[in-house]
Design a protein that fits this description.
Blueprint: E1 11-17, H1 22-29, H2 39-53, E2 85-91, E3 100-105, H3 107-110, H4 114-127, H5 134-144, E4 157-163, E5 172-177, H6 184-187
Antiparallel strand pairs: 1-2, 2-3, 3-4, 4-5
Helix pairs in contact: 2-4, 4-5
């Protein structure tokens, strides 16, 4: 709870849905039609999801994205807890008629290996004239992954988020990481 004036307060609501089709993303991002999102903006979000997950260009809109692991080592202890997509609703009393929504793509669950996720994201960013820091992004990931190769599994990338810019500019894109502090390879180094 924040200690702020009522007019500055807000409710932050996060929820997970087991649905992973783009049709379900469209339904939630438009609040079932309560808010207007242009078709080019929706297609941009769709390309972001498809590109970063490595889905084919014509992946059906109503098809669920399945979580598959090349190595079979994704969150074995809690796989069912991370199924589905995540959304954040920013609810501000009296200021905005509908909440702002942010989409979280759990790439740790649905993406390929960390190197592919990084390359796919960098390719998407470059195609949208936002690739200025892609080389530094990959370099940073490699330094965090000193215990294993980026192509040898997934888990460093946890989420990628996408939020429409209500002022008409570029969407807000963020990457979230987990350093794999307890990954067995971090403890198997001979000194």
């Amino acid at each position: 709870m924040d200690d702020v004036r009522t007019d500055k307060s807000r409710l932050k609501l996060y929820f997970t849905t087991p649905r992973t089709s783009f049709a379900s993303v469209r339904e939630i991002m438009t609040l079932g039609g309560l808010t207007t999102v242009s078709e080019p903006e929706m297609q941009d979000l769709r390309s972001f999801i498809s590109s970063t997950l490595g889905l084919p260009d014509h992946y059906p809109e109503d098809a669920e994205v399945r979580a598959e692991s090349r190595t079979g080592e994704i969150w074995k202890e809690a796989e069912d807890l991370v199924d589905g997509y995540i959304y954040f609703l920013d609810i501000r009393p009296g200021t905005v008629p509908v909440p702002e929504i942010k989409f979280y793509l759990p790439v740790r669950r649905y993406g390929p290996d960390d190197l592919s996720i990084a390359r796919n994201l960098m390719e998407w960013m470059a195609a949208h004239d936002r690739g200025t820091f892609c080389d530094k992004y990959l370099s940073m990931l490699e330094s965090v992954a000193e215990h294993r190769g980026l192509g040898d599994g997934k888990g460093l990338h946890t989420y990628l988020s996408y939020q429409f810019n209500k002022k008409g500019g570029d969407p807000d894109i963020k990457s979230y990481f987990g350093p794999e502090a307890y990954h067995p390879a971090r403890f198997n180094k001979s000194e």
